[in-house]
Design goal:
The structure holds two protein chains of two kinds.
Chain A: H1 2-39, H2 45-50, H3 59-65, H4 68-102, H5 105-120, H6 123-133, H7 140-147, H8 162-189, H9 194-202, H10 207-218, H11 220-235, H12 239-242, H13 257-267, H14 271-298
Helix pairs in contact in A: 1-14, 4-8, 4-11, 5-8, 6-8, 8-11, 11-14, 13-14
Chain B: H1 21-30, H2 33-61, H3 81-87, H4 91-123, H5 129-139, H6 144-157, H7 164-188, H8 192-200, H9 205-234, H10 237-242, H11 251-261, H12 266-286, H13 288-297
Helix pairs in contact in B: 2-12, 3-12, 4-7, 4-9, 4-11, 5-7, 7-9, 7-13, 8-9, 11-12
Classes of the chains: A mainly alpha, B mainly alpha.
């Protein structure tokens, strides 16, 4: 009796975990191994049909890393865009959390519901709305700027220019991403003992000083986590770029790593090259996560 | 959408005492008239920024002259024509049905797999437990954009392209890590004594699971289900790649094709976007409190 109980205590957790581990292994971990294998192959449409492997060593990587498109366009697009979005998302999210924390119950409810709405609008439909708002001919923004004499709709199309294209994309991504930061930081703010602020106030510290010397140090782990997550998300933004005019590969100038990988694979049929780009993206993400985690562990914050 | 799949290593401690209500009220009373005007401006700006896209989408959908709307903040006339256009042939209804099917399977099957795994991690001490938790956290970092190539090749080999079930299984894998992480907190919050009382009454483990744990953890299951529903409903890249026949499209892919054919027909596009987004927005705002508590629950215990 006791023995069967002990046996079931050791096997039961694994029985319970089994379905999850099978799904994660087959659909996340094995494909990760496969994408590395594919990146070492000249895997094209014909291989897709025959199912045969075709290893060529590191040729895809040599080609990728010697491509001016990568260094001049795709990597800067990806990195600069991610940086702008992370800084924008985290600072706007924090500002909104501080604001929500100061409001009375009614306005707090109204504002946090509005923030939830921004979060809930799907990336896909959200992107269409931003494209519509910035439509060069008929959009709200062009009309307003035209009325102010700042913009001539007949000569400008900001979706073809790299910088304005990504400015609109950044607005979209920040709008969609800041609610998560706001809600998380707000949850953290509630835990900061109010005595600390009161003491600092008596010592004559102004709001800015109180924020930087009390809130930021205490909430450092929270900021670390939201920054890591935003960085990861913003490096691999796909839908929001792919669905903008020219974003799905029609305009080389606005490619980022995710879209480039997808376009190489599914539009060009070069699955090997696409995989090499995908591996590059994954390695970049792991490096960033690793660097963050190292600093955190060094400071014993996690 | 970005916020969903919210991998939350997010763990702001929630056990610390809430900031005293008295202290909050006092700090609000102390604010000067200038301070209050500033607060009002900040609230107005926040509401404008967060709600403008959703408002613009919905109001364009009902606008009689959507294409020539320009800078009119209120539609010149209200109409249902745009919705009529979207539903005029049956395809959009078919896409809705496909999306509901995929999301339904993802939520129901996903909830079971997630709950079993969460119970294992929260309730049992076993060898490699920490390793399993760390693995679950790490697989969240894998960019799904990198997995679409190998998964497409695999799914194609199994002849499962165009299969709504295959798509659901992929979505279950995507929502698992976050779901386990989030539910773990809910399970850990249930006192062990309640479980033991069931054993004393002569119940076996599975009996206890269904009659004690399951009802108690139901609110947590609602929160994770909302997330997995939204993940499945909003997902775009995998649906775009896997679903190749028109009648198998989900709403996101259907809308993208629709957009391709009807560029600048903003009325119908916004009407379709409204149909896709509003259920998610409503769902999300209703579950708002559960979601924010779920985001923090992951780190409370366990």
């Amino acid at each position: 009796m006791v023995d069967t109980q002990r046996l079931s205590r050791t096997t039961r957790p694994w029985l319970l975990l089994a379905p999850a581990l099978v799904v994660l292994g087959a659909l996340l971990i094995w494909p990760l191994v496969r994408v590395v294998q594919l990146s070492l192959q000249d895997f094209t449409l014909s291989n897709l049909v025959s199912g045969e492997d075709n290893y060529i060593g590191f040729d895809n990587y040599t080609e990728l890393l010697s491509s001016p498109l990568l260094w001049k366009t795709v990597l800067p697009n990806t990195v600069v865009f991610a940086l702008v979005c992370v800084v924008g998302t985290v600072s706007l999210g924090t500002a909104v959390a501080l604001l929500l924390n100061r409001l009375g119950p009614v306005w707090k409810w109204i504002c946090s519901t509005a923030v939830m709405v921004a979060w809930a609008v799907p990336a896909l439909t959200g992107t269409y709305v931003w494209v519509w708002l910035f439509d060069p001919l008929d959009g709200l923004v062009s009309h307003v700027l035209n009325a102010l004499g700042l913009f001539d709709p007949s000569t400008t199309n900001w979706f073809t220019d790299r910088v304005s294209f990504y400015a609109i994309a950044a607005l979209n991504v920040i709008h969609h991403g800041f609610p998560f930061v706001a809600i998380t930081v707000l949850a953290g703010l509630v835990t900061v003992p109010s005595e600390l602020y009161e003491a600092a106030e008596i010592d004559g510290a102004n709001a800015r000083k109180r924020f930087w010397s009390i809130t930021v140090p205490i909430l450092k782990p929270v900021f670390a986590v939201v920054t890591i997550l935003s960085t990861i998300w913003d490096f691999k933004v796909f839908t929001q770029i792919y669905l903008m005019p020219g974003g799905s590969g029609g305009n080389d100038q606005v490619l980022n790593l995710g879209v480039w990988s997808y376009q190489q694979s599914f539009a060009q049929g070069e699955y090997g090259k696409g995989s090499a780009i995908a591996v590059l993206l994954t390695v970049l993400l792991l490096l960033i996560t690793g660097v963050y985690l190292r600093t955190l562990f060094k400071e014993k914050e996690l | 959408m970005q916020g969903v799949g919210v991998p939350a290593a997010v763990a702001p401690p929630t056990t610390a005492p809430r900031r005293g209500r008295r202290a909050q009220t006092r700090s609000r009373q102390q604010s000067s008239p200038a301070g209050r005007i500033g607060l009002g401006i900040a609230v107005a700006a926040l509401l404008l920024f967060t709600l403008l896209p959703a408002y613009w989408m919905i109001s364009t959908a009902f606008d009689k002259n959507a294409a020539f709307r320009g800078a009119d903040l209120v539609p010149s006339g209200w109409t249902l024509d745009n919705f009529d256009k979207v539903f005029s042939d049956d395809t959009f209804g078919l896409y809705l049905r496909n999306s509901l099917l995929v999301a339904g399977v993802t939520v129901i099957a996903g909830a079971m797999v997630t709950l079993l795994a969460a119970v294992a991690v929260a309730r049992f001490q076993f060898k490699f437990r920490t390793a399993v938790i760390v693995m679950i956290l790490i697989v969240q970092m894998v960019p799904l954009e990198a997995l679409v190539i190998p998964l497409f090749i695999q799914v194609r080999q199994y002849g499962a392209l165009n299969s709504l079930l295959a798509l659901s299984v992929v979505y279950i894998a995507f929502s698992l890590p976050f779901g386990i992480w989030m539910l773990r907190g809910f399970v850990a919050a249930i006192p062990k004594e309640i479980e033991e009382a069931a054993y004393v009454d002569g119940a076996g483990w599975w009996r206890m699971f269904f009659s004690v744990l399951l009802p108690l953890v139901a609110p947590g299951l609602v929160a994770t289900s909302v997330f997995s529903f939204i993940t499945a409903w909003n997902e775009f890249i995998f649906a775009l790649t896997f679903m190749q026949d028109d009648e198998k499209y989900t709403v996101t892919v259907g809308l993208q094709k629709f957009f391709g054919q009807n560029t600048a027909e903003w009325g119908p596009i916004m009407a379709a976007s409204t149909v896709i987004s509003v259920p998610v927005i409503v769902f999300f705002t209703i579950a708002q409190r559960r979601i924010s508590s779920g985001l923090t629950a992951g780190g409370v215990k366990g």
